[in-house]
Amino acid sequence: MDVEGATWPPAESASSGVKAVPIADYGFLSDGETTALVSPGGSVDWMCLPRLDSASVFGAALGRHAGSFRIAPSDVSVPAARRYLPGTMVLETSWGTATGWIIVRDVLVIGPWRHEQEFSHTHRRTPTDYDAEHILLRTIRCVSGEVQTVMECEPVMDYGRKFVRWNYTDHVYHQATATAEGSDIELTLTTDMRIGLEGGQATARTMLRQGDVRYVALSWGSKAPPLDYADAYSRLVWTAHHWQHWLARGRFPDHPWRSYLQRSALTLKGLTYAPTGAIAAAATTSLPETLGGERNYDYRYTWIRDATFALWGMYSLGFDWEAVDFFSFIADLAESGDELQIMYGIGGERDLAEYTLDHLPGYANSRPIRIGNAASTQHQHDVWGALLDSVYLHSKAADHLDGRIWPILSKQVNAALKHWQEPDAGIWEVRGELQHFTSSKIMCWVAVDRGAKLASMIGQEAEAAQWELAAEEIKQDILSHGVDDRGVLTQSYGNSALDASLLLAPLVRFLPADHPVIRATVLAIADELTVDGLVLRYRVEQTDDGFTGEEGSFTICSFWLVSALSEIGEHTRARELCAKLLSLAGPLELYAEEIDPHTGHHLGNFPQAFTHLALINAVLHVISHEDGS
Ligand SMILES: OC[C@H]1O[C@H](O[C@H]2O[C@H](CO)[C@@H](O)[C@H](O)[C@H]2O)[C@H](O)[C@@H](O)[C@@H]1O
């Protein structure tokens, strides 16, 4: 962790006096298998190996003794500038010192597909042309003057519990390996700097002069690391081009807000676990929703809801291959015969039993740190609608429904029909008493409505007619029990609380956007469920969600409000809110789950798919109105 926070010196750890890095100041790296967070101070404070949901090897974001990997000038802790190389996931940090300037570039390396002689042990989807190389590469270039530069690599395996032992290899002073008892991970550090081994730390200190270049590669797989700068540089360039080519597949409007759309698309792709097609909800666990509070969860899993909504966002930008992979992931799971869970491990694991890590202090002393997620065994009745809607969207455009998917889908429609009258934990996964959540019932309507449309698309007319009738019955039930005296959709049957999940009603076309119930609901949420214009999920004092403490505004809900305001014709309000939300992005245009409406600080796991997918939908809504379409 940085000793000085860059733009936000917030919560101070009582035990250490060290300031936490503002969550949204982290840079996000991904190779489609694992992810990393890099602080403004040049420290990799979060990386889990070999998968993004494995135990961390760098865990300083949750406790400064849990491992970090820093490259920076010896005497400066705040960089001059940071950016992604345009259209890529290559992070560039520029450092100005009293004596000169260096530029550090960080990347998780992707190279050409390399399983030619033997099958991959992890990939289940159709092979692509590219593959993660399992290398975290950091390059340094001195562009003027001279700069004393330090590298400190201190991994601690198993979330900071297993200290490593370093050993040199035959590449004298230029390569060393790190292992820890009880851990399968072997790390190899290769560099053209001279490494010293000090306990659990591999370090280098060197004076770089104008024109000097250096690299450091940390690798953990079978692919050989670069042995010289030229090789390192060409791998960085290959990876940069890979991201740019991927991005070029999308359709982005020629608009000042384009970069937010592009960063969101890259982030969603970066949260995708390429071997299976699963999309993780976020790259982290237990970044807190309230500083010092207990609302800390593990998001490194794939929720059907989050992932299918993400595909919705990607689809609007022209990306559809990711959907094919994700549907195949779902098909693998569904064909095993068990009921569809609301979430899975990114490798398809069903058991995500939750436990806490009590040895870590947590981000800004926010405890507990949770691994696993107890919500995985919940009944959340929106899940069938989320899946059906996503498949419908993709099938409608292609005018084709994959034969493998149909039996799975019809099973989900029947599940919605069987359970829609029962209470559930809802889209917000409350851990209090089950309720008749109105938004869950709306999503059951979505499941049956889309099921009917898909059935008709493939000529199953009898089923289509039956489901159309059933969908209408659900709709009438909602309108009879889930609307208050003001004509506003309520959080649950018989309870007049507001809930931002009802902003989905116009977005999923439950009722036409000019219907009085939709207009009243959107305006009530805009006026009564906001703090400084930012939307809360619900009022914590009105909702038994099973936790204590406040939470910030939920950014997905604020972006949903932008889309919903657009839908009901409140274009000026929609645009103003959208502009405000974009102005609250992190310096690298990334978002966590929540924003504290009083301070603008980002809270919760990071970067979060939910926020980025809703951003895409909101921005496209606003831009399409500007275009007059
Ligand atoms: O509010 C309590 C719940 O918070 C988390 O769930 C939230 O994040 C999920 C992943 O993005 C999202 O699908 C869900 O709609 C959100 O409410 C947490 O994962 C739950 O365990 C927790 O009960």
- Unreliable stretches covering 5 or more consecutive residues: 1-16
**How large is the share of residues in beta strands?**
15-25%
Structural class: alpha+beta
The chain-level mean pLDDT equals 93
Name the ligand types. Answer: the ligand OC[C@H]1O[C@H](O[C@H]2O[C@H](CO)[C@@H](O)[C@H](O)[C@H]2O)[C@H](O)[C@@H](O)[C@@H]1O
What is the 3D form? Answer: globular
For the sheet with most strands, the description reads: 15 strands, antiparallel
Cα-atom radius of gyration: 25 Å
Summarize the amount of helix as a percent range.
Answer: 25-40%
How many DSSP-defined strands? 27
Q: What is the CATH architecture assignment of the largest domain? A: Alpha/alpha barrel
Identify the CATH class of the largest domain: Mainly Alpha
What separation lies between the terminal Cα atoms?
47 Å
* Number of spatially distinct domains: 2
Determine the number of helices (DSSP H or I, runs of at least 4 residues).
Answer: 14
At CATH level 3, the topology of the largest domain is Glycosyltransferase
Task: Walk me through the topology.
Elements: E1 27-30, E2 35-38, E3 43-48, E4 56-58, E5 68-73, E6 81-84, E7 91-96, E8 100-112, E9 130-154, H1 157-160, E10 162-163, E11 165-168, E12 175-179, E13 187-191, E14 196-198, E15 201-209, E16 213-219, H2 229-248, H3 258-270, E17 272-273, E18 278-279, E19 302-303, H4 304-316, H5 321-334, E20 343-344, E21 355-357, E22 369-371, H6 383-398, H7 406-419, H8 438-457, H9 461-481, H10 504-507, H11 516-528, E23 530-531, E24 534-535, E25 553-554, H12 555-567, H13 571-583, E26 594-595, E27 602-603, H14 609-626
Antiparallel strand pairs: 1-2, 2-3, 3-4, 3-5, 5-9, 6-7, 7-8, 8-9, 9-15, 9-16, 11-12, 12-13, 13-16, 14-15, 17-18, 19-20, 21-22, 23-24, 25-26, 26-27
This protein binds the ligand OC[C@H]1O[C@H](O[C@H]2O[C@H](CO)[C@@H](O)[C@H](O)[C@H]2O)[C@H](O)[C@@H](O)[C@@H]1O.
